[in-house]
Amino acid sequence: MQPIKIFISSVQSEFDSERRFLHSYIMSDALLGKFFTPFIFESMPATDSTPQKAYISEVEQCDIYIGLIGKHYGRIAEEGISPTEAEYRHATKKHKHRLIFIKNIPNKERDRKSQTFIKSIEQSVVRKRFESESELKNAVYSALIRYLEQKEFIRLSPFDATLHHQATIDDLDEQRIREFVLLAKSKRSFPFEESSPINKILTHLNLIEDNRVTNAAILLFGKNPQRYFITSEIKCAHFHGLEVAKPIPSYQVYKGDVFQMIEQAVDFVLSKIALTVGTRSKSAEVDVHYELPVQAVTEAIVNAVAHRDYTSNASVQVMLFKNRLEVWNPGALPFGLTVEKLFKPHNSIPANPLLAEPMYLRGTIERMGSGTLDMAKRCKEMGLPLPVFVQEEDFRVILHRTPQSTPQSTPQSTPQSTPKTTLETKILDLIKHDHSITQSAIAEKLGISFYTVKEYLAKMKKKGLIQRKGGTFGGYWMIND
Q1: How far apart (Å, rounded) are the C-alpha atoms in residues 258 and 37?
Q2: Reduced to 3 DSSP states, what percent helix, strand and coil does the chain have, rounded to the nearest 5?
Q3: Over the chain, what is the mean pLDDT?
Q4: According to the model, what pLDDT value does residue 49 have?
Q5: Once rounded to an integer, what is the mean pLDDT over residues 321-332?
Q6: At what angle do helices 423-433 and 439-446 cross, to 10 degrees?
Q7: Other CB atoms closer than 10 Å to residue 151's CB: what's the count?
Q8: Where are the alpha helices (DSSP H) in 313-390?
Q9: Distance (Å, rounded) from C-alpha 261 to C-alpha 229?
Q10: Is the per-residue pLDDT at 473 higher than 80?
Q11: pLDDT band at 285 (very low <50, low <70, confident <90, very high)
């Protein structure tokens, strides 16, 4: 095969050491050297051409553009921009694969034009920060290996499809698998019965080979997934202000299988945001409205769990601020998918296909790549700004809250509605309007799990807030004054 050409671009004087180091490293590495041929201008022989034309000619011939950006913007060429930016623009115009690595220094120390250059590329190119040559080497190596995988020059099993070297079928929760079968059969016509042999179910899902199970099987149905994947967790934090600050008013770390973690994280958010409960003046149903669309909150958290990089030492983070909800996951958009494309119809390209398939069968996610479009639609319907998607070292989803509905605002009570801020008060409101309401109906109206409702009702009865009259079936709730 023809070598894959890499063009290394930067302000030469600032990154002289890094440029030569990368060139030497890629050429000498046992794996990278088989596929890539790097180019730096310092190694170019004398030629009857201006430097700028020589640069552009090399960009024209390359397959990958690597840009190093630091403190200095560089000299201004005839076009009014630096050679580095001119090379980047030409690489973009010619649809080259672009990799940007930014020196980790305080932003105030950068040239103003360098800051502007970084902002111009941040929404379309994945950026990685580095402080040392060692960090730069590791980041470049990871990016180039990923390129080889995406282009199928090398084939490695996805993380979720890899058989775990230690876990066996005994590490899986049989009851959770049978609960999954019931839901998958009702949601997607899954071709197995609840009583079907566990081995057959897992084999159908490509989650087992002999008695060995895949990483996906552990994450989906493990008795204790964190025994093997310690960072498979969701960290949830609620801040009263606009930024991360200590002490944190409310902080929870949720563990368990992927379905349990998603339910717990969604419940955490819904218990912290405002809820309006209406009356029966217009219909027999009580209107229940959260300040954020429940579907968008759920989709953001589901996507973070389904598409994260499980080889990372980082965890999924859910952070609720006064004016917004942020969901972070350690991962990157699939090759060819950009932030801009998330607002348009696009293919579903799961980072963890064996993990995503059971989540689809259970009804947790959709297959057609419509999740981000649905998030935007739901926010627009509620008069909220569109979601913001950010790809840096991590992938972030930002949902903006309605300013007048934040806990710090002073809501205006009306005869029709009253904002509530905790799950207990939300459940009490529903019982007040319908004393015969069932646990399932409460779960559906609040967008939380049946088990969470059951747990809260038990706590509320123990506190003496409510009591049940007439038995479980056919009975009714009483609110204690």
Answers
A1: 42
A2: 40, 20, 40
A3: 85
A4: 56
A5: 93
A6: 120
A7: 13
A8: 353-361, 371-381
A9: 14
A10: no
A11: low
Q: Tokens 């049978």, residue?
A: 178
Cβ partners under 8 Å of residue 310, min gap 6: 159, 160, 215, 219, 229, 231, 232, 352
Supply the DSSP string of 138-171, one letter for each residue: HHHHHHHHHHHHHTTSS----GGGSEEEEEEGGG
Adjacency order of strands within the sheet including 324-329 = 250-254, 234-238, 316-320, 324-329, 395-400, 388-391
Tell me how far CA of residue 145 lies from CA of 69, 201, 332, 335, 364, in angstroms. 22, 34, 14, 13, 31
Percent of the chain residues topping a pLDDT of 70: 88
CA distance linking residue 459 with residue 423, whole number of Å: 12
Could you tell me which of 299, 297, 289, 295 has the C-alpha nearest to residue 325? 297
pLDDT tens figures, 336-362: 788 888 888 877 777 888 898 899 899
Cβ count within 10 A of residue 191:
11
Q: Are 9 and 84 in contact (CB under 8 A)?
A: yes
Least confident of 133-147, 175-189, 428-442, 445-459: 445-459
- Whole-angstrom distance, CA of residue 39 vs CA of residue 22: 10
pLDDT category of residue 420 using cuts at 50, 70 and 90: very low
Put simply, whether the predicted model's pTM sits higher than 0.85 gets the answer: no
Three-state SS for 59-113 is HHHCCEEEEEECCCCCCCCCCCCCHHHHHHHHHHHCCCEEEEEEECCCHHHCCHH
Across 271-287, b (16+ Cβ under 10 Å) vs e yields bbbbbbbbeeeeeeebb
CB-based contacts of 368, cutoff 8 Å, min separation 6: 348
More confidently predicted of 288 and 17: 17
Read off the tokens for 295: 């579907």
Tokens of 455: 């747990």
Confidence of residue 16 (pLDDT cuts 50, 70, 90): very high
Residue partners of 21: CB distance under 8 A and separation at least 6: 133, 136, 137
- Which pairing describes strands 97-103 and 64-69: parallel, antiparallel, or unpaired? parallel
Task: Quote the pLDDT of residue 455.
Answer: 77
Residue 103 has what pLDDT? 93
Per DSSP, what are the bridge partners of residue 8?
A: 66
Whether the Cβ atoms of residue 37 and residue 96 lie closer than 8 Å to each other: no
Cβ-Cβ contacts under 8 Å for 332 (sequence gap 6 or more): 126, 309, 391, 395
Q: Are 307 and 296 in contact (CB under 8 A)?
A: no
Say if strands 466-469 and 250-254 run parallel, antiparallel, or are unpaired.
Answer: unpaired
Q: Tokens 């899902």: give the residue.
A: 205
What is the average pLDDT across 283-287?
Answer: 59
Predicted local distance difference test score (pLDDT) of residue 38: 95
